[in-house]
Design a protein that fits this description.
3 copies of one chain form a homotrimer. Chain A is α/β, with parallel strands linked by helices. Chain A has 3 domains: about 1-150 and about 215-390, Glycosidases (TIM Barrel), CATH 3.20.20; about 155-205, no CATH class; about 400-505, Class I glutamine amidotransferase (GATase) domain (Rossmann fold). Chain A contains 17 helices and 13 strands. In chain A, the strands form 2 sheets. A 9-stranded parallel sheet of chain A has the order 5-4-3-2-1-9-8-7-6, covered by helices on one side. A 4-stranded parallel sheet of chain A has the order 11-10-12-13. In chain A, helix 9 (about 250-255) links the parallel strand 6 (about 240) and strand 7 (about 260-265). The longest helix of chain A is centred in the middle third of the chain and has 29 residues, at about 205-230. Chain A is globular and about 70 Å long. Chains in contact: A-B, A-C, B-C. The interface between A and B is large, with 47 and 38 residues.
Chain lengths: ~500, ~500, ~500
Amino acid sequence: MLGVCYYPEHWPKARWKEDARRMRELGLAYVRIGEFAWALLEPAPGRPEWGWLDEALATLAGEGLEVVLGTPTATPPKWLVDRYPEILPVDKEGRRRNFGGRRHYCFSSPAYREEARRIVTLLAERYGNHPAVAGFQTDNEYGCHGTVRCYCPRCREAFQGWLARRYGEVEALNEAWGTAFWSQRYRDFAEVELPHLTVAEPNPSHLLDYYRFASDQVRAFNRLQVEVLRALAPGKFVTHNFMGFFTDLDPFALAEDLDFASWDSYPLGFTDLMPLSQEEKARWARTGHPDVAAFHHDLYRGVGRGRFWVMEQQPGPVNWAPHNPSPAPGMVRLWTWEALAHGAEVVAYFRWRQVPFAQEQMHAGLHRPDGAPDQGFFEARRVAEELTALALPPVAQAPVALVYDPEAAWVYEIQPQGAEWSYLDLVYLFYSALRRLGLDVDFVPPGASLKGYALIVVPSLPIVRGEALKAFQEAEGLVLFGPRSGSKTETFQIPKELPPGPLQALLPL
Amino acid sequence: MLGVCYYPEHWPKARWKEDARRMRELGLAYVRIGEFAWALLEPAPGRPEWGWLDEALATLAGEGLEVVLGTPTATPPKWLVDRYPEILPVDKEGRRRNFGGRRHYCFSSPAYREEARRIVTLLAERYGNHPAVAGFQTDNEYGCHGTVRCYCPRCREAFQGWLARRYGEVEALNEAWGTAFWSQRYRDFAEVELPHLTVAEPNPSHLLDYYRFASDQVRAFNRLQVEVLRALAPGKFVTHNFMGFFTDLDPFALAEDLDFASWDSYPLGFTDLMPLSQEEKARWARTGHPDVAAFHHDLYRGVGRGRFWVMEQQPGPVNWAPHNPSPAPGMVRLWTWEALAHGAEVVAYFRWRQVPFAQEQMHAGLHRPDGAPDQGFFEARRVAEELTALALPPVAQAPVALVYDPEAAWVYEIQPQGAEWSYLDLVYLFYSALRRLGLDVDFVPPGASLKGYALIVVPSLPIVRGEALKAFQEAEGLVLFGPRSGSKTETFQIPKELPPGPLQALLPL
Amino acid sequence: MLGVCYYPEHWPKARWKEDARRMRELGLAYVRIGEFAWALLEPAPGRPEWGWLDEALATLAGEGLEVVLGTPTATPPKWLVDRYPEILPVDKEGRRRNFGGRRHYCFSSPAYREEARRIVTLLAERYGNHPAVAGFQTDNEYGCHGTVRCYCPRCREAFQGWLARRYGEVEALNEAWGTAFWSQRYRDFAEVELPHLTVAEPNPSHLLDYYRFASDQVRAFNRLQVEVLRALAPGKFVTHNFMGFFTDLDPFALAEDLDFASWDSYPLGFTDLMPLSQEEKARWARTGHPDVAAFHHDLYRGVGRGRFWVMEQQPGPVNWAPHNPSPAPGMVRLWTWEALAHGAEVVAYFRWRQVPFAQEQMHAGLHRPDGAPDQGFFEARRVAEELTALALPPVAQAPVALVYDPEAAWVYEIQPQGAEWSYLDLVYLFYSALRRLGLDVDFVPPGASLKGYALIVVPSLPIVRGEALKAFQEAEGLVLFGPRSGSKTETFQIPKELPPGPLQALLPL
């Protein structure tokens, strides 16, 4: 099915009805709205204004459209930031970042968690049982703009608590991190700082725990919202729209609290950010690298335990990459079909109409700012027509499982094999090789069942836990391990039995 | 005519008389002095010491030389900075910058404006009617070292006032900036911050207004000085020496308060900073790129409404570029003639004698530090001799007008076409193409009369105001528009009629 | 002779005895220990725990090994940093740097100097006359991680005092720095700030004095330790382990307080950091550039007035360079013989056994983390066997002296000839050329006697002092001067007689 992202708050009410009608005529089923609208829903503290959203929902419902309602926590309003300046994040350089973009909040901030709970509660109280609301999207693209990791005093305090819960006694932390090295022994959890602006590099175990903590904080922030929605919007789904090429966040863990995963697919922008040569980039400038969307479809289908949406589909040129060409004719249609073929339940275009103001004014929509249909519209319409003639089969289990480990990305970031390497590049190389062989691939997290796979590819799994080892032992297919697998303990030490650590028993060394 | 920059305060008084005599013998007409001498004119707060400058002026006057006296506001003394630490600028990274170089002040600082008014008043009271003083130069190279834009609390406050004056009501600002996007709605002008250190990119309208404000602050600071000079130095000219390749400042606006424009011509240093290949840079290393000086002569002749000086002419190797070779033999002569041919009324060499200490000790002068003539001297002398044999015709209107828009540079900076593009590069491409055809070019600001031009080249004019449109309509020649012309409204939105906006009526689309 | 670096505190006591036995069996003479152990020697303020070190020393002594005991001041414990947060250094960007790596202290901090004196006194009182202790190493790799130069308030104050002692009267400083330029005149030493975060570049004389001051502070910090050791550990040697390619510190000056110099030799890591092409780097990736170790052996033999050790010898792959390949087979043996051939009295491998935790877990040792011998062990054993069969002749004076001037590195840093040049690159070019001719080279500081040298190479000596001039005049061999020699006065001015300044008399110009 197809959908679209829509911002009624950007347009005069007079246009809403026609917009809704044309969405129906185009054959769209879902409309995502509201995810950046806090300042319009609550223009002044404690004085919500629901009227416009009531009306927008009614208008969309009037045309039989189902709504995905976003919680607006990615953009706290100015009055909220002024009231609680401590919610602003502090970057790795120690600088407090300012209001004026988006995602200007710290996941650990108790004040912001309370405010998030408050606005989500208000939203769910009002629309949790609204017949036009199919489900909710929490926040927007967690981690975008490098926001998973914050270095503010509240994060420091929360990290100390996280460590205390993890290790119980500070001596256990000293042992786990090897603080006998370089006199880094701690006498109390309260002595531990966030690992940044150190004179020499920080202890890798310290870094890894901080990266885990930061990812956990996002999950906790998300779960807080999910709990409110589960309580006040029974029967409605909850999802989140992940982004491409982000590795600071463990999407498998976060998605455990969701009904399914979503992701935002921008093949051209992503390709411009890939570590390719200028020649390669030029070659794929208007189509995107052939594997870039497929890679993420397969990843997020795994993250969603078989279920995923494309919540935002590139409909034309975007605005945020170093270079933003127009897609080659036919690509929007191709990308849509590619998503559906990989099992996407819904592909929603971003956005209905190009907005003529603010940061994303150069980001195309299905329509131009003046309302005339743009190239993406015609391609979406063709897909909609084609879809009516087709019954898509369910996605079957692939012959190949690729074990994707968010933690491995952190291990490689902390201790790269060489300056140019990243875990993601390594996974991408394996993935592309498999695709070139015409093989379908399922992404699974370490420890997931590997039953039924003829081939299991593990690009790299530095830390092998018991459940992962068990899954490998029980695998029926061939398991192929990439470099550095089994090379670290859970606390970032070299295993006593040396690499490949617990895999020694399994591998013919 | 020829001139020179001279720093009597760097040399023993015993040399002054001979220096002046040799200047006269060389055929120089003008001597610029004093623009960095605050700490010597006022070694302690409120206790000026005029003696040395009185004597220097008398010495120069004794040889019939005319003096351009600089106001010394580019270098507030240490005692002033210690007394008002808030005058130090804050950079985009949020760091207060220190005393120890030059231009260490914020244009918005009320304390510094007061101090600037005080020292200029003292200077003008003493020398405003001095017979040897032909005119004044305000400050020095506004904007050098990235100083137009400051991010201090005083700038924030001044910016809020600027916005309040511009928009009247905050709702007008919300409308103009499109703050419905990303929940950026403001309830009061006092909520608006300076657009830096945001988590995602700032709103482009916010940025553009801030860039306009910052340029306006420089003009206001300059006008404050001009007003003092007009009152106390009647009949003396006032100019300012602009720099090459600076785009943070609108020189057309600032120059409205001046009698004519000046600029500082360093062809080799500028060429090393241009976005050229290593091969191109090597090719032009000792001559400068063939168009680099001409481009600025034509630009600043336009800025000066037909009148300009070269206030500083490179006389040999400089010290501040990544690489600083010696000019090829004959280049100093060639550059001088080139300037005169483009209409420069005066070409003043920087400097009379190479100073053996401090930051610019590796910057050549007409003489070596030991007083012996250097290569530049011999070439300047040849020009001086040649000049006596020639009557230069006045510069005629060129066949081609190039519409140069400082605001366009800001639009491109905020929203580049692609990562490598800048407005200046684009203008330069057009300019070079015209020059290769042997065509003379006048630079005009948008809205200026285009009468009499056979060809009007508009490399890019994103924002087309009424007066510019009118000028295009009344143009007699062909008007050639480059990319993105008419693509933005005055508040950085996509025009309702889509690009090229108001140019639609004019263009055969 | 051979030695090894050993960290008993990283291993269970049960292993110590066998480790010591195997060290003896391998033929090692020296073991360096303790240089990062402060938190284990003094786990809580004022409550030292000597037991483990007593036992470690006894164990090593039991096998006839001699110990080099490190003072642990490179790694102040967390409790110390929390008690005196002001000891943390401030970097050039003005950021206070955090605990969590090493070298997190400011050399000027009075509190830290007192703490350093205290811990060294405690250490020397206990082990100053220990029969197994052959000598002491002060701190570790002064200057590593860019720590020579700090920008904290205590440095500012100390710098002002340093200037007052150097110049006596502030007018002398104004004269020396040429503060008439850009209104930089100071009325009091207390007005002078540290030269960073200025808007335009700082005064070069200011920079040079600050660089001298910073180097002096390191020497003073070291001397404070040496004085304690001389008093409490009579007859024991004192050395320090310098690092490769560091130029912020004057090693000749610091070594005046030492018995001999040591340095840490990592040919592969250093090669990866050299300004070579990718092709060159790939070529030497597993052997190191042929001259890189020799260069430093010769440098530190000069620094040690003929005596030096390699305190840390790369035994396999390291962890800290952008790329860290394994040395080609035989390289560890070759490097060891190369060091001995250049006159190293001792070559100590770093480290006995690879540590499985913390920052350096990927740095090889002679043994793997599980205790099995690694490649380096076998090569070291072969050298040990070969050594028993050889009596190494003493190192004779070389035919060539290379005048190496730490101050020149600062002059080039402040005022590079072109963006890509450094003093070190220039010296390296001369050195490599000499080596390619098969010539042995002695490094000597400016002013040292040049008697007996057939050729004296001076890659560049911008500041020529009286004693250096005298040495040149008295030289028996040919003196070859590189560029910019004699180009600056002691206070970073152009000499009155112009470059080559005092060399004019000597050179046939």
